[in-house]
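Hey, resending since the last one bounced:
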Amino acid sequence: NEFMYEEIVYADDLNAYKVVPASTTVTSAMASLAQVQNELHQWGLANQVTFDTGKESKHVLSPSDPYGDDFKLLSVTFDCRLDMEAAVRTLAGKMKWKVQMLLRSRKSFNTEDLIIQYKQQVLSFLEYRTGAIYHATTTVLRQLDGIQDRFLRELGIPKEAAFLDLNLAPLAMRRDIALLVVIHRTALGE
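The structure tokens again:
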């Protein structure tokens, strides 16, 4: 059946997706989505389940022929081209604010405490999204890398010393390591 979609249910959210050949037109993909949505609504009527139409959306993810607005999935904003620029821009804005607050408090803390707080409050916030933004271009990801560089510069810590003495690797390296760990665990069946 050409309308077989994979479903993902999380709490009260239902997401359905399907990988289609690159030769598929947006028009035929949208027609397929409309038919599946209609079948789901019919199932809902038969089973006394209602759907919030304000939360429904349809997207075609494609670098060359996307369709739909940006959408959030597990707190990450995705664009239909998957260039992740909006997600990184939003993330960079939140990281800048967090770093600025840390730097404002530096009179009350020593450098080691500020680094610990950076790791807890900024890195944990950023690294939750690593898998989603990893494929973005270097130019897009530079927005994030510059924030850590600025933080270290404001504290007077060279990048090399941060890595060797404080176990604070550059963000590009941290992203690479994180994805290598995913690949390694997958290969081990973990």
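DSSP finds seven helices and four strands in the chain.

Sorry for the duplicate.
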